Amino acid sequence: MRASLPFPDISPEILSFTIGGMEFALRWYALAYIVGIVIAWRMAVAALRRPVLWPTDLAPMRPAQVEDLLTWIILGVILGGRLGFVLFYQPGYYLQNPVDILKVWQGGMSFHGGLIGVVVAGWLFALSRGAPLLSLADLIAHTAPPGLLLGRLANFINAELWGRPTDLPWGVVFPGDAAQHCPGIVGLCARHPSQLYEAALEGLILGAVILWLVYRRGAFKAPGLITGTFLSGYGLARFAIEFVRQPDAQFVTPDNPLGLAWHVGGYGLTMGQLLSLPMILLGLWLIARARRTTP
Q1: In whole angstroms, what is the distance from residue 226 CA to residue 30 CA?
Q2: Fewer CB within 10 Å: C terminus or N terminus of the chain?
Q3: Nearest CA to 294 among 212, 225, 216, 210?
Q4: Residue 106 vs residues 36, 101, 197, 236: alpha-carbon distances, Å
Q5: In angstroms, rounded to a whole number, what is the distance separating the alpha carbons of residues 138 and 214?
Q6: Beta strand segments in the chain, E
Q7: pLDDT computed for residue 199 by the predictor
Q8: Cα 159 from Cα 197, distance rounded (Å)
Q9: What's the pLDDT tens digit per position in 150-193?
Q10: 4: three-class secondary structure by DSSP
Q11: pTM, whole model, 2 decimals?
């Protein structure tokens, strides 16, 4: 077998226990959501407590209102993420089995769907509270990268969303189907740890750039700039990583081994790339608008 790294022996469950004959477990993925939300909450409060960061030295809302905003955002993430997965990735299956839409514990969440849910939730919150929409969007966007970082690390621990086969020395031999089903490879095969690539690009690097823009370049004073940076930065990172990420199984066929959601003559785009293109374009437009309209 080619040089590769073994998958670390980390259980997806942090702890499990039984109460009254029922089993309960705390998983790394759930903890990633919880810790990501707590970090976002504290980051938002810290930014709102510094009016000097905002246009006319006036924060878009009071720090005490962040808890209400989080309730809206959590609902947007869950509903949008689930419905996005249903509509973007497996509409045929869920049309025949609509009850399974409610079975979120079986997995199936879409980042792009969750993003749409957050946009809708933030827009409704801004309308109900009279908050400036773009500044509120900037506040939310600057808190997102830590959650993405933790979520992708949890994906790695769960051995899910792995990458395509590779002979690079840092390829990882994931357990289960990931190691067994590699076309043209006899025996176990290593794959790109695409979850770690995404954690680095979408979480660590994008988060560092955004914090630098906020606290060193006064980016909140140009409404829409941070939102545009987040959208275009995430979209570009996801678009690039899709080249080494294993495509969703429902798109892979003998005539379409690369799992492209749209293709002509063997060339095309994955579903992740198709959904990222509008993000990139909208993000670049917001950046240009913010630079044009802000002195």
Answers
A1: 27
A2: C
A3: 225
A4: 21, 10, 25, 29
A5: 10
A6: 5-6, 13-19, 22-27, 172-173, 262-264, 267-269
A7: 97
A8: 14
A9: 999 999 999 888 899 888 999 999 988 776 667 666 667 889 99
A10: coil
A11: 0.88
